[in-house]
């Protein structure tokens, strides 16, 4: 019983920590919490874009394997288009190429079919690349501005520390620790938000360039196939034949009895 009373008395006598994160933010007031909220929104938005764009890129790259494996085995582009997923980037290129081929037959001027098809496929590629790049400007903006948003909190915290020093007439640690701690916290949070956003932007941009190269190569193959009336196709590895089940071992012939 006495031990418990001593422990409770020791806890009550222990000084309360007034320089933690929440204490520093509460001392900063509405301005500190507003800046913190802006940085949290930037961070959540960055990770949301990173995850959604990564899943979108993975889907496009996975569909490209179907293009290489199944599409070019078809007898025509129309037949091959039925083997692609609807609303996919690769299906869009094929549909736009077929539509451009049909539209060129209705034209009355001397526009070359190659130029018309090439321009149509280029516009289709640009639309797909623009969709894949959606959200990346937000990552770039967060990476460029979040350190300055954190710096704004830092400046305000230092300003408050100087005011406390002027009011107290001395630079005692209890007067400046809270505002200075708030300033350092804001700087750290700004950097923690900026670094993942910059890394995500560079990584997703590099993957988009890789996809753009795939789209460009696929468009070139489609154009060559149309201009050659289906004679020119990329080399496709033959489909693997399904493995045959192993034949059951025949039972050994029973030995005939001797006469």
Short characterization:
This protein is mostly helical and 259 residues long.
Describe this structure in words.
The chain has 259 residues and is mainly alpha-helical. The chain has 7 helices and no strands. The chain has helices spanning 2-13, 21-69, 77-81, 89-104, 113-132, 136-168, 173-227. The protein is elongated.
Q: By helix and strand content, what is the structural category?
A: mainly alpha
Poorly predicted regions are 5-15
Number of helices: 7
Name the overall outline: elongated
Spatial gap, N to C terminus: 105 Å
Instruction: Give the total of beta strands.
Output: 0
% residues in beta strands: under 5%
Q: Helical amount among residues, as a percent range? A: over 70%
Using only C-alpha atoms, the radius of gyration works out to 34 Å
List the helices and strands and how they pair.
Layout: H1 2-13, H2 21-69, H3 77-81, H4 89-104, H5 113-132, H6 136-168, H7 173-227
Considering the chains and any ligands shown, give keywords for the structure:
mainly alpha, single chain, 259 residues
């Amino acid at each position: 019983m006495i031990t418990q009373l001593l422990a409770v008395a020791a806890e009550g006598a222990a000084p309360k920590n007034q320089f933690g994160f929440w204490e520093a933010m509460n001392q900063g007031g509405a301005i500190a919490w507003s800046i913190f909220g802006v940085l949290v929104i930037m961070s959540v938005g960055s990770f949301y874009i990173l995850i959604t764009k990564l899943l979108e890129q993975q889907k496009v790259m996975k569909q490209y394997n179907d293009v290489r494996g199944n599409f070019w085995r078809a007898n025509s582009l129309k037949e091959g288009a039925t083997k692609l997923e609807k609303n996919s980037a690769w299906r869009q290129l094929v549909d736009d190429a077929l539509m451009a081929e049909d539209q060129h037959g209705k034209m009355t001027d001397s526009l070359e079919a190659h130029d018309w098809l090439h321009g149509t496929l280029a516009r289709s590629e640009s639309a797909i690349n623009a969709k894949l790049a959606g959200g990346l400007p937000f990552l770039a903006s967060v990476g460029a501005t979040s350190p300055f948003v954190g710096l704004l909190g830092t400046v305000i915290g230092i300003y408050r520390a100087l005011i406390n020093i002027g009011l107290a007439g001395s630079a005692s640690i209890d007067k400046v620790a809270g505002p200075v701690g708030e300033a350092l916290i804001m700087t750290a949070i700004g950097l923690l938000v900026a670094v993942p956003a910059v890394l995500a932007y560079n990584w997703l941009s590099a993957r988009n360039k890789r996809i753009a190269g795939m789209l460009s190569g696929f468009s070139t193959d489609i154009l060559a196939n149309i201009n050659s009336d289906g004679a020119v196709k990329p080399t496709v590895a033959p489909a693997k034949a399904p493995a045959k089940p192993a034949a059951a071992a025949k039972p050994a012939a029973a030995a005939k009895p001797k006469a």
